[in-house]
């Protein structure tokens, strides 16, 4: 009965379902199957030797630390930006709201060139920072800045709808009971958007792990120093070493899938807890 009711509510359900499955197979499953086929050309010991190469381990460290720093920044300031957009009225609010989506619309290569120019020793920001002994371009700091630029919309856009739908009556009731501003935020507001915030933070981290266009121009790309994983994958592809590129890419894929699985399980547990009340 449920199936027929769905068909009735959504005319053309069979065509829509078939098109969706075709899209999933062509866009998602087919590339993943090609990755698995490349990995099948090597045994476990060959796979392990590739992903544990000493130079690659340095790239893991650079990429993970830079992505972690960028995600930490986005977790804090992305929450603040979404809070300001949803809770306050000020001149230029719509412009600020539109600028949040700029990293999605701007080609990442253009973003990388712009950031590299701004933060170079002769750039607007870099010339000022160089006076105090801070070098951004071609360092891990520049990599983190590029990752921040490309991934902060994930945090803002996941929190913003939740805050917009949040009923302010709960805050008013808490105020009448004598709760302070920090108590209201930590005990009432934050638990409401915490699952969305966690999802945005995880998506921000995953996007940073695989970022290439914005990072490549500002990283410096020096082996054993500031190479990122995406660059090494690109180099392996340029060398036509597809199994090695697939092996390295599979590490990022596994990390991303595990993080998404953890996030979904956490959100499911939170929803079940709320349904229990």
Please, could you describe this protein's structure?
The chain is mainly alpha-helical and 277 residues long. The chain contains 14 helices and no strands. Helix 4 (54-87) runs parallel beside helix 9 (140-165). The protein is globular. The relative contact order is 0.12. Residues 1-7 have low confidence and may be disordered.
Structure characteristics:
mainly alpha; 78% helix; 277 residues; single chain
How many β strands by DSSP?
0
Helix content: over 70%
Indicate the radius of gyration in whole angstroms: 23 Å
Structural class of the secondary elements? mainly alpha
Poorly predicted ranges: 1-7
How much of the sequence lies in strands comes to under 5%
What is the compact description of this entry?
The protein is mainly alpha-helical and 277 residues long. It contains 14 helices and no strands. It has helices spanning 2-9, 13-39, 44-51, 54-87, 93-99, 102-105, 108-118, 124-130, 140-165, 169-176, 181-209, 213-216, 229-238, 242-275.
């Amino acid at each position: 009965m449920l199936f027929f009711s769905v068909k009735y509510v959504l005319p053309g359900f069979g065509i829509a379902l078939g098109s969706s499955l075709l899209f999933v197979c062509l866009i998602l499953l087919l590339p993943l199957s090609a990755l698995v086929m490349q990995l099948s050309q090597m045994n476990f010991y060959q796979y392990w030797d590739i992903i544990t190469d000493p130079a690659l381990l340095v790239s893991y460290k650079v990429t993970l630390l830079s992505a972690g720093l960028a995600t930490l920044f986005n977790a804090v300031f992305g929450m603040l930006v979404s809070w300001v957009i949803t809770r306050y009225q000020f001149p230029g609010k719509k412009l600020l709201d539109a600028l949040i989506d700029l990293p999605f619309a701007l080609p990442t290569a253009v973003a990388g060139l712009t950031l590299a120019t701004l933060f170079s020793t002769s750039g607007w920001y870099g010339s000022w920072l160089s006076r105090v002994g801070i070098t951004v371009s071609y360092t891990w700091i520049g990599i983190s800045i590029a990752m921040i630029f490309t991934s902060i919309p994930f945090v803002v856009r996941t929190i913003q709808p939740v805050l917009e739908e949040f009923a302010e009556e709960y805050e008013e009731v808490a105020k009448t009971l004598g709760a302070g501003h920090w108590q209201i935020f930590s005990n009432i507001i934050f638990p409401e958007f915490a699952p969305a915030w966690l999802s945005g933070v995880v998506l921000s981290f995953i996007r940073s792990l695989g970022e290439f266009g914005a990072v490549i121009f500002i990283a410096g790309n020096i082996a054993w120093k500031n190479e990122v994983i995406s660059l090494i994958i690109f180099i392996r592809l340029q060398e036509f070493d597809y199994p090695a590129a697939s092996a390295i890419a599979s590490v990022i894929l596994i990390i991303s899938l595990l993080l998404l699985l953890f996030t979904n399980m956490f959100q499911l547990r939170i929803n079940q807890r709320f349904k229990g009340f």
